Amino acid sequence: MNIAILGCGTMGMIYAHNLAKMPGVTVTGVVDINARRAERAAALTGAKAYTDVASLFEQKDLETVAVCLPTYLHKPYVLQIAEKGLHVICEKPAALTLEDAQEMRAACEQHGARLFIGHVVRFFPNYHDAYQQAHSGKIGAPKMAHFKRYGAYPQGMEGWYTDPGKSGGVIMDLMIHDIDYACWLFGEVESVYASVVKRDEPKMDYAQLTLHFKNKAIASLTGYWGYPGPFTTQFEVSGDQGIIRFDSNQVQPLDIQTMGLLRGEGPAVQIPSGSSLHDPYYKELQHFIECIRNGSDPLVSIEDACYAVAIAQAAGQSAQTGQPVMIGGNVS
Q1: Tens digit of pLDDT for each residue in 61-92?
Q2: Among 38, 160, 265, 271, which is most exposed with the fewest C-beta within 10 angstroms?
Q3: Yes or no: is domain 2-121+281-300 CATH 3.40.1190.20?
Q4: Any residues with CB less than 8 A from the CB of 102 and at least 6 apart, and which?
Q5: Beta bridge partners of 5
Q6: Pick the CATH number of 123-274+308-326 from 3.30.360.10, 3.40.50.300, 3.10.290.10, 3.30.70.120
Q7: What's the CA gap between 57 and 301, in Å, rounded?
Q8: Starting from the edge strand earliest in sequence, which strands make up the sheet with 142-151, in order?
């Protein structure tokens, strides 16, 4: 598989690091308007460095392009790549609006290119294990969940990350991880209610979402840029027979408490993450590349990615109006 990387910032370098060591994959080009960043990625991967995508497209054997650009640039470049008939692995979120995401999807379908969106949380061992446990019947029917994601206020990145018109803000950029996961866990959303608190000094962007699902499940989500501590993710998934908990700050990765424990039927079931040779980004990229090779369906479909954008967009609307937003039937 011959692949190129478009954008050599933070995520582009993560992709470069993982693709460089992946068997059967050759990084043939890296592109960034900043020549120093492009050269750094080229040194890591052995690829040729470019400062414009038109030069990259001159490569004859290119098959796939990984798009690691700022969110507001996803659509225009994915459309260009699709026109060349090249497959696309694009960082999340797919786009800033559902309409843009749907246009990207349609363009790739028109030109016979596959489009994958990097909702990497599904590939984190603790989240993936929690999904499987929640649907195994171990905690009964999952009915409620709480998700939290805290991080320092973004710095640098040429200002795009903190510009809601370019990144979508804390809901579209940060919380969309948990939006996608909650929808994977519970299915279609019936309504979303959101509130956002912002502060300029010190900078803070804090949001809370409540998602009501059509199967009557409820999820509450918290996202926080400006957190003074270490990057933190937490979740609880509750069923009528038990609860699954995770806290990234604890040594114990995943804890499942069931009603059987209360009846003295055995110890809590603990699912450790275990030692992993490769990080979740490696697993995600490897999975998408295998889907291209064998034509299989990905763990994260483009429909899933469009749906996450739709819910995040509705949450932004709710935060602006102070009212819940009902979700229609055709949003992906």
Answers
A1: 999 999 999 999 999 999 999 999 999 999 99
A2: 265
A3: no
A4: 306
A5: 30, 66
A6: 3.30.360.10
A7: 26
A8: 269-270, 254-258, 242-247, 232-239, 142-151, 218-225, 203-213, 189-200, 325-326
Residue type at 70?
P
Q: What is the pLDDT of residues 85-122, one digit of tens each?
A: 999 999 999 999 999 999 999 999 999 999 999 999 99
Locate 83 and state its tokens.
Answer: 């026109």
- The backbone torsions φ and ψ at residue 129, rounded to the nearest 5 degrees and listed phi first, read -65, -40
Predicted TM-score (pTM) of this structure: 0.91
Contacts of 144 (CB under 8 A, 6+ apart): 217, 218, 219, 237, 238
Helices (H), 170-269: 176-186, 259-262
Percent of the chain's residues with pLDDT above 90: 82
Contact 210, 109 (CB under 8 A): no
Cα separation, 1 vs 28, in Å, equals 10
What pLDDT does 278 receive? 58
> What is the C-alpha to C-alpha distance for residues 292 and 113, in angstroms, rounded to an integer?
9
Q: Where are the domains of the chain?
A: 2-121+281-300, 123-274+308-326
Closest CA to 103 of 306, 317, 319, 250: 306
Confirm if 48 and 29 have CB atoms less than 8 A apart. Answer: yes
Helix (H), strand (E), coil (C) string for 84-135: CCCEEEEECCCCCCHHHHHHHHHHHHHCCCCEEEECHHHHCHHHHHHHHHHC
Are the beta carbons of 29 and 50 closer than 8 angstroms?
Answer: yes
Q: Radius of gyration of the chain from Cα atoms?
A: 20
The C-alpha atoms of residue 272 and residue 297 are separated, in whole angstroms, by: 28
What residue type is assigned to position 12 of the chain?
G
The two three-digit tokens of residue 183, written as one number: 């929808």
Q: Which two tokens stand for residue 319?
A: 């935060």
